[in-house]
Design a protein that fits this description.
globular; 18 helices; 7 strands; five-stranded mixed sheet; mainly alpha; single chain; 6% strand
Length: 519
């Protein structure tokens, strides 16, 4: 069988399933899949993510406005990493914190596919069924890391892109103000996504370079965020400790879709490779059909700017450093994730037959369902830990101070002690956010006896703080997460206090215990 015969076969079956009903059926199918996707969030009381407990806990502290007495300075809201905290803070005035967290997760899980679908439709695809391709990305590694601000940055990045398409077609004051607000929100969410938002606007402007009014309008809309950028750069210079991932590791991440692998890279690889194969097949088929229709002569189209943007992002994967010693890191994997989102948008512009996209979306759903089923035992186990820690919070009076020892080797529970502060405002002395400059709240080291420890992220430092305990920082409770014996061996002062009857056991389980320090 030669290429001409293959081309003839494709031509005959190309319009199978392309009925007028597709445009009515697609929103229904998309809505059902969206609800099923979001419904997984409510299978457990908590959705356990690495940083999420700390983000929610710090929103509690922001709400209480008792920062000075909590050994905290701030809040500093002029940071490109605060939108998640602000949303949680607003919601907390009317809802319990565990509900606030679920709502924020819903915004991320549902919001990104919805705005991506709106952006896809703006490019007038041949079939609406391409909307189904985005769903596997809604449960990414970053969601399980609890990277609220980064994912909100993606949400606003896509929204900025969509708004810019409207704006270049209809230059109105209302659309200009909307673009200004969205760019500012993108800045407050994540600086990298703000830069990508500007790049998206640039690629929209390039094919319309004669529209000087559009360029002037964009510049006006970007003024607030550009001012914020200047202030941020002047006040928070990069430390310059840049690092890059080896290129072979990056290639492996791209092929295996590392940004969709959560707990076990080996066990989850068959599912992520399945995603790769389906998306790659759709891309190759779309390219072939594109060239076949033009008699294998390339003709540039306006939608090809999506692919140019994708290529630029792909190059950026290998150029932009993975971290600078100051940011949250994992920059390379974030760019790969964004590149995949843009590439999927590009696939929908290739004018694939609707039935091909529908089948591809169905296969992706099958892979995703089985992938999530494999994750469920881990989620249930971590939810049990979160529930147990959260319930221990009822024993903690408001304004009490809790010293935390973490001996749990599971890296996904390193910040789980923050669940103690979801119910009641307490001072938890393991708060990684307060040690970093790109979060709203920061430790007051004079209050924390800073001369005795550099930070309080480790059990060793917690033990040093317990040894240095005095009237300036009274510890009321000690929370131990993980093995009990290792705490005794690693911190003799704790064992000594226990022998002297100066600490009293409140509640203990195989995984954790809570102790009260007797005054």
């Amino acid at each position: 069988m030669n290429w001409r015969q293959i081309s003839e076969i494709l031509k005959r079956i190309e319009h199978i399933g392309a009925t007028p009903y597709a445009r009515f059926a697609e929103p229904v199918v998309f809505g059902v899949v969206l609800l099923l996707n979001a419904g997984r969030l409510f299978s457990t009381r908590f959705f356990p993510a690495l940083d999420a407990p700390a983000h929610v806990y710090n929103a509690v502290l922001l709400k209480e406005a008792l920062l000075a007495s909590y050994c905290l300075d701030g809040p500093n809201w002029i940071l490109p990493n605060v939108s998640g905290h602000f949303i949680l803070l607003l919601l907390s005035y009317v809802l319990p914190m565990e509900v606030c967290a679920k709502i924020l997760y819903l915004v991320l899980i549902c919001g990104i596919p919805l705005v991506w679908r709106s952006l896809m439709k703006a490019y007038q695809p041949a079939s609406p069924w391409g909307s189904l391709l985005i769903f596997p990305l809604s449960w990414s590694f970053f969601l399980f890391l609890g990277f609220f601000n980064f994912l909100l940055g993606i949400f606003f990045f896509l929204w900025v892109w969509r708004c810019s398409l409207y704006f270049q077609k209809k230059l109105t004051l209302q659309m200009g103000m909307s673009l200004c607000v969205l760019l500012t929100l993108a800045w407050f969410s994540h600086f990298l996504m703000y830069l990508f938002s500007l790049m998206a606007i640039g690629f929209i402007y390039l094919p319309n370079y004669k529209k000087t009014k559009y360029l002037f309008g964009v510049l006006l809309a970007a003024i607030p965020s550009l001012i914020l950028t200047s202030v941020y750069i002047l006040n928070y210079p990069s430390p310059g400790n840049y690092s890059w991932q080896p290129w072979n590791i990056i290639v492996e991440w791209i092929i295996n879709l590392r940004f969709l692998q959560i707990y076990n890279l080996i066990n989850e690889a068959p599912f992520t490779l399945g995603y790769t194969c389906i998306w790659t097949f759709l891309f190759v088929l779309g390219i072939f059909l594109r060239f076949r229709k033009s008699n294998f002569n390339f003709k540039f189209q306006s939608s090809d700017w999506v692919w140019i943007f994708c290529i630029v992002l792909f190059i950026a994967i290998f150029i932009i450093p993975d971290g600078d010693g100051n940011s949250g890191g994992i920059v390379t994997l974030r760019i790969i994730f964004v590149t995949a989102i843009v590439a999927l948008l590009g696939i929908t512009t290739l004018r694939l037959p609707g039935w091909v996209l529908a089948i591809g979306g169905g296969l992706l759903a099958v892979f995703q369902f089985n992938h999530y089923a494999q994750l469920t035992p881990n989620i249930n186990d971590l939810n049990g830990d979160a529930n147990e820690i959260y319930n221990l919070g009822i024993y903690l009076p408001a304004n009490s101070t809790i010293l935390v020892f973490v001996n749990d080797q599971n890296w996904l529970t390193q910040h789980a002690s923050a669940y103690l502060g979801w119910n009641t405002p307490v001072r938890i002395l393991k708060n990684y956010e307060a040690e970093l400059q790109h979060f709203p709240l920061h430790w007051n080291q004079n209050c924390l006896e800073g001369q005795h420890l550099k930070n309080i992220s480790t059990s060793k430092d917690a033990c040093a703080l317990l040894s240095a305990n005095n009237s300036r920082l009274i510890i009321h409770y000690i929370f131990i997460q993980g093995g009990w014996n290792s705490s005794e061996n690693n911190c003799p002062i704790f064992y000594s206090l226990k022998q002297e009857g100066k600490i009293k056991l409140i509640k203990q389980s195989p995984k954790m215990s809570l102790w009260k320090v007797e005054s």
